[in-house]
């Protein structure tokens, strides 16, 4: 019984041949267009489109350029940070310190601008702060080899603490008006925020990096098995290090955006955002175990949460429901695949049992028990 | 192939471990770094500012750490099984608010009943976490992140703008965190009792030891015949009960409870457990260590104030401590692995 499951050689003339055909039919997944149109990402995108359609039809004032504008401005920080976070979670690691890097960047901007530095220098130094913060995470995780969950809980406190040290409980608000209006400006009459162009570029860069380069394929291998990835030539430590640097860099960009969009540099900017980002990434189909997920799915996940959020607010439903919806969506998105796989395994087993009634009913002949 | 000779000379003398061996055992304790850090912190602060250890000072230190101690003990149980519970802050918030509601709506309700109700609510919320984790076989990090939002949302929906203040609660309940026995506030004594009970359970009972086995290697634990799902469920349930106790005590200790009570507490609690030597990947650490970690993290705040250090440094120092704890843990693990390799090489 057990060896008939493992064998797949079609030469065997015994009932095992029967099993092997059944098994091979099962093992063949969807291919071509069906794979793309029925995959996890596609379902996420359908859900997003269905919700947008629903909102346009039934929620007053939803279908307007104003919606696109505010929705866009609101989701940008999460969308940005979700890109490197996707890659990091695909490798089986995590980065909880992203929101603290946003806060640290914001605080740095505030202090430097207050000290009278030119805005170009301020932006460059703030970006550098994010890169260094990311490199610090990367060093501890990739080079020293510490668990990323613990390390980034530590740096979550550390970076937020440094933000407090830098700016205290002050807030700096007098950023150049030309810059802050640019960050909230829209592309003509479409309502799309101008800054969205930059976000799209970041998303394309990470999408291409993950899906179309050997480095990106290596990340999936890394998420499945670190040892196997090492053997096929993925430079594990180097890949992880640069992912954390990337995460720090993008978090710094999000910090600069956050500061200029609200034109306020405070130490507590974006606190708690890390959990929102991770929730969105997991909702977008990335497996927390690593090895599974895609950029299009994550973008759909982020936009779905953002759109539901905005629609609920337009419908004058309080944030309370939103929090519950976010949590429920997250749990459903991870529990549903396990239920599906349990059901399909059950159906698979049942089909095998039907095609092999004699093997299933009697099993292998029991050897005489030694007295 | 020669038969392995018995080596009576190498066997430890029956009189017990030598003083050197005993010292080595103490030096290997995972709670040692956090204990030394705590003693050093308290000593330095006391030398700089003797008021720090006045009876009022000690009482404040104990009161501040009580809630986090209880939560860290529960979290340690969960982390030891290689899971994590991020929803504790939300559970605490819900229970604290329901405590306020009970006192306000049922006048004259006995405190014990309120405590039991809080534990029951905590147990229910913890059981939901445990069921989702064990039945759906989805990582606890994701599930409890989801329930963090859901429980907080329920708390928001229930409380709205309502807050209950100390005046809404009977004086005897508030007195729990004012009255002292031998210098210890009553709620701290409850916390110490919790630590003692859970510590004995973890050291001396079979289910307690099972939790370590599960955290070290879930598959091996399963092969060994340990009911993994049931034990993990138990850990989440216990953590829920403890978060419930912490929630009730929170209502006694602090003036107001409302929709946002306990927000953001989860990472402090995980940090306390990690600083106290509970390995984030399960299988090692003790609840006593977690409790010491909680005391250390809460004492730093008061110590910095007493030392007149800029209060803004406090969180950065907490971050450094967490990183130090992980690095120390790593060094210890590397040394143990090396020692094991050497001793195995000798035995071949």
Automatic annotation (TrEMBL), chain A:
It is a multi-pass membrane protein. GO terms for molecular function: transmembrane transporter activity. One of its GO terms (cellular component) is plasma membrane. It is found in: Cell membrane. Keywords: Cell inner membrane, Cell membrane, Membrane, Transmembrane, Transmembrane helix, Transport. It holds the Pfam family BPD_transp_2. It comes from the Bacteria. Residues 1-20 are annotated as: Disordered. The chain crosses the membrane at residues 43-62, 68-89, 122-142, 149-167, 187-210, 241-260, 272-290, 297-314, 320-343. The keyword Cytoplasm does not apply. InterPro entries: ABC_transp_permease (IPR001851). This is Autoinducer 2 import system permease protein LsrD. The lineage of its organism: Bacteria, Bacillati, Actinomycetota, Actinomycetes, Micrococcales.
UniProtKB/TrEMBL annotation, chain B:
It is a multi-pass membrane protein. It comes from the Bacteria. It is found in: Cell membrane. GO terms for cellular component: plasma membrane. The chain crosses the membrane at residues 32-49, 61-81, 101-124, 131-151, 182-203, 232-251, 257-280, 312-332. GO terms for molecular function: transmembrane transporter activity. The keyword Membrane applies. Pfam families: BPD_transp_2 (PF02653). Keywords: Cell inner membrane, Cell membrane, Membrane, Transmembrane, Transmembrane helix, Transport. The complex is composed of two ATP-binding proteins (LsrA), two transmembrane proteins (LsrC and LsrD) and a solute-binding protein (LsrB). Part of the ABC transporter complex LsrABCD involved in autoinducer 2 (AI-2) import. Probably responsible for the translocation of the substrate across the membrane. This is Autoinducer 2 import system permease protein LsrC. It comes from Cryobacterium melibiosiphilum. The lineage of its organism: Bacteria, Bacillati, Actinomycetota, Actinomycetes, Micrococcales.
